[in-house]
Write a structure and sequence with these properties.
Strand content: 15-25%
Structural class: alpha+beta
Shape: globular
Number of strands: 12
Largest sheet: 10 strands, antiparallel
Distance between the termini: 19 Å
Radius of gyration: 22 Å
């Protein structure tokens, strides 16, 4: 949670919005590692107000600078940041004794770092990460829901876990238990969220590692010579964030991920597959592309892309449950509710 990153990224994005063609660096040659593959190492951020799906009222992937400004001006976090930067009104005096203080929610604006601007991809202002289908929406199959938090199919392991959501710590959501990052930051797909949108990439000749700031997830990706040599663990072995294997194609790191853990609410089911591509397209920017092939959940293959820009400062450990008594309180409250004959129902937020 670094406001310096938000300001720095915001100024960069503002300049790019004014002259988006600056990103399209013709003939750009990416740096190489000592063993000859594209050097992707460093700290990167995907902070932006652009999200996975297209917002209401926008019909195109590429938008104008006027449309981008309207989205930025109306963004909730931008609005509250502007409001909280205003000086305190000294004429109001001290709070009235016995009167409730105004609500501030979980965090005020200084604690969050979602990004302040519309993303620029290949010199274009983008309304969504999704590039296919053309409507910018996730192509869920009928009955699968219109949001990432749709109920899992009856009889699946995820459904079983959801049905006993308040039974014990193991039945709570994986984000709440700090097993994987909230909001799908670690993937599949590596999504931007309210804060901690930072990734550190480290490469060796036979591995690539992506350290995710949120919940300090670490994706350790074995590198093989080509797609033909990519081998995954048996399908019965389900891993958090999935089983990933990578290889290089010219100046691109390609990563294929399968066998996602069934309790993880990601964009890929345990039967689906994701292909990611990481390409340096200019100084200080990686183009991150993804493709989801999951016939169990979707009516077609869908694709997207987002920029990952150089982040300022180091990536710090996100100590998710250090001294956190919230989980104990949730389970104690559930036991009290059961004693009183109450019904414990799963909500979408429980599986966030």
């Amino acid at each position: 949670m670094r406001r310096s990153k938000l300001v720095g990224a915001g100024l960069l994005a503002l300049g790019l919005a004014a002259a988006p063609a600056a990103l399209a660096q013709a003939g750009y040659t990416p740096p190489k590692t000592s063993w000859g593959v594209p050097d992707l190492q460093g700290d990167w951020t995907n902070a932006s107000i652009t999200r996975m799906t297209r917002p209401a009222g926008i019909d195109t992937l590429v938008i104008t600078s006027e449309q981008a400004k309207k989205l930025e001006d109306g963004d909730f976090n931008n609005i509250r940041t502007r409001e909280e930067l205003k000086p305190t009104d000294q004429s109001t005096g001290a709070p009235e004794k016995g009167k409730a203080l105004p609500g501030v929610g979980n965090y005020n604006a200084v604690w969050v770092d979602p990004g302040a601007h519309v993303a620029v991809v290949n010199g274009e202002l983008r309304s969504s990460w999704i590039t296919e289908p053309a409507n910018g929406k996730i192509p869920y199959k009928p009955g699968r829901g219109a949001a990432r938090y749709e109920a899992p199919a009856a009889g699946t392991a995820a459904a079983s876990a959801a049905s006993r959501s308040y039974e014990g710590p193991e039945s709570r959501s994986v984000g709440e238990r700090c097993i994987v990052g909230f909001g799908n930051t670690g993937g599949p797909v590596m999504n931007n969220v309210l804060y901690n949108n930072t990734y550190q990439i480290v490469q060796s000749p036979d591995h690539a590692m992506i350290l995710v700031e949120m919940v300090h997830d670490a994706r350790i990706i074995p590198i093989v010579a080509s797609k033909a040599e990519a081998k995954h663990d048996p399908s019965g072995i389900k891993k958090w964030l999935g089983d990933s294997v990578g290889w290089y194609e010219d100046n691109t790191l390609v990563v294929e991920t399968k066998n996602v853990h069934p309790q993880q609410r990601s964009y890929v089911s345990e039967a689906g597959k994701m292909t990611e591509r990481f390409t340096r397209t200019g100084d200080g920017v990686i183009l991150y592309q993804f493709e989801i092939d999951d016939p169990e959940q979707y009516s077609q293959v869908w694709k997207g892309e987002m920029p990952m820009r150089t982040a300022t400062g180091a990536v710090y450990e996100y100590a998710c449950h250090e001294g956190n008594y919230g989980l104990l309180g949730i389970l104690e409250g559930a036991r009290q509710q059961e004693r009183r004959g109450g019904k414990l129902e799963l909500t979408a937020d429980d599986e966030g």
